[in-house]
Amino acid sequence: MQVVSRARAFKRSWVDMAEALCKVRDEGLFQRWGYESLHAYALEELNIKRATCDKLTVSYSAMEQHVPHVLEWDGVAQELPTIDAVDYFARALDPRPRRHGEPPPPPPDDEVVAELKTAIFDDLAGAPALRRRFNEVLHPKSDDEHRRELLGRVRSTADRLESLVGGTGLLAEARVEDVARCMEQLREDLDRLAGESP
Question: What is the DSSP letter of 98?
């Protein structure tokens, strides 16, 4: 029973920490201890940085609002999703502007939210799998962003190819120089394309 109890505590640790931080925030308890903000309290007393504090409280609040039954799960009989997966869920429901001054994107439609809930709370998908599956829907890129990303990938591949060819020691020096010359021309083309509007 002790091992089961410790397993439950271990599996629920991030949820329990998040719940405690939300209580400290909501009741203003940090002020009683002489701190001006939850972040200052968390850093000084708990050695929890601002980003982690925000991730915990935002994730817990999203679960409390959208899937409160999950907060009752013990982590053993009903496995809990990772904090990164729940953070992804929270930020999808309350999108922020990507750059300063940009308006936030619209929140996802109900069908996407339902799929996201299933992926996170039923299938226990991790954050990388969620990004692969939902980023294009939740954070669609403009044609210009797609173009810049593609040009960057081509440049990166050209750099790797040149490095590999030059580092093998298997090819004739003349061939290595040919490849280096071609890659330089390719980079010049990429720079020109990057400067042009689509």
Answer: S
Q: What is the reported pTM?
A: 0.70
Per the structure block, which two tokens stand in for 156? 């990166």
Instruction: Give residue-wise pLDDT tens across range 93-104.
Output: 887 655 666 676
Task: Kindly report the backbone phi and psi dihedral angles of residue 125, in degrees, each rounded to the nearest multiple of 5, phi listed first.
Answer: -65, 145
Using the 3D structure, point to which of 56, 73, 90 is the last residue of a domain: 73
- Residue-wise DSSP of 114-181: HHHHIIIIIS---HHHHHHHHHHHHSPPPHHHHHHHHHHHHHHHHHHHHHHHHHSS-S-HHHHHHHHH
Domain that holds residue 18: 1-73
Find tokens 């929270």 and name the residue: 90
Say which residues have a Cβ less than 8 Å from residue 19's Cβ, sequence separation at least 6. Answer: 60, 71
**10 Å Cβ neighbour count for 47?**
8
| Number of domains the chain is built from | 3
